[in-house]
Amino acid sequence: MADIRERAKFDFIRYANCWEDADILRDALCVRPGDSCLSIASSGDNSLSLLADAPRLVVAFDLNPAAARLPGAPRRGLPRPFP
After folding, report:
1. Among positive and negative, which fits the CA dihedral 78, 61, 16, 47?
2. Residue 78 three-state SS
3. How far is Cα 38 from Cα 58, in angstroms, rounded to an integer?
């Protein structure tokens, strides 16, 4: 089986919208204070929304390096305290 890097280009963002609803995601995951969460980075909306439930850690990943950098961008605009 060919490696994913041989089948797709990851040098640009393929889509900028995430159609999932962050409220539904948060309700379904039932994140509790102190939990650790794993999230697909996508545009970062859902990953950042998980912070509202005070987890200890949110790890956002994406196969596309450009998309993986997006969740960190809004941090500059959020007030402290923010991890």
Report:
1. negative
2. coil
3. 6
Contact 60, 40 (CB under 8 A): yes
CB 29 within 8 A of CB 55: no
Q: Which residues pair with 59 in a beta bridge?
A: 38
CA Rg value for the chain: 14
Judge contact between 11 and 66, C-beta under 8 A: yes
Residue 38 token pair? 């794993």
**Residue scoring higher pLDDT (13 or 39):** 39
The pLDDT tens digits for 39-83 are: 888 777 888 899 999 999 998 888 777 766 666 665 555 454 444
